[in-house]
Amino acid sequence: MAPWQKGADDFLSMLTVMDPGGNEMVGLDDLARISRASLPQGERLHREPDVTVGGTDMYHLAGANGRYMFRDEYVVAYLGSVVNILIDLDKAIPAKEREHIRESILASVHWR
Q1: For 9-28, how does the pLDDT look when each residue is reduced to its tens digit (9 = 90+)?
Q2: Which of 3, 24, 27, 56 is deepest in the core (most CB within 10 A)?
Q3: How many CA atoms lie within 13 A of 52 on its CB side?
């Protein structure tokens, strides 16, 4: 069985990230593909290079989230759960400042 399927409402109807033995089943490429497949209409996020957050690799999607916002999405399957960090910033904020805000948020993440 596939680890996910897209439901009639365009949202994920199932996501299994660990097998019964406790091994991760869904990698970053799969998670990014799933996320992009389930984006709301009009949201255009593109894949950026993966980032390391608190010592853990996460995929990174970025792009316009509506007319006035810019979204960064960072996701990983971690200890059997999908961990998602969404950062929505106004497009009016200069790019360098948005980058500084994103970096400061990601620098504050600590895994247990």
Answers
A1: 444 444 555 555 555 567 78
A2: 3
A3: 1
Q: pTM (2 decimals)?
A: 0.75
The number of folded domains in the chain is 1
Where helices occur in 1-112 by DSSP H, the ranges are: 28-37, 95-107
Tell me, yes or no, whether 99 lies in a domain.
Answer: yes
* CB distance 50 to 28 below 8 Å: yes
Would 112 be classed as within a structural domain?
no
Q: Which residues contact 28 (CB under 8 A, 6 or more apart)?
A: 50, 57, 58, 59, 75, 76
In which domain, by residue range, is 52 found?
A: 4-107
pLDDT tens digits for range 34-63 = 888 877 776 788 999 999 999 999 999 999
| 72 in any annotated domain | yes
- Please give the structure tokens belonging to residue 84: 């998602």
In a domain, 68, yes or no: yes
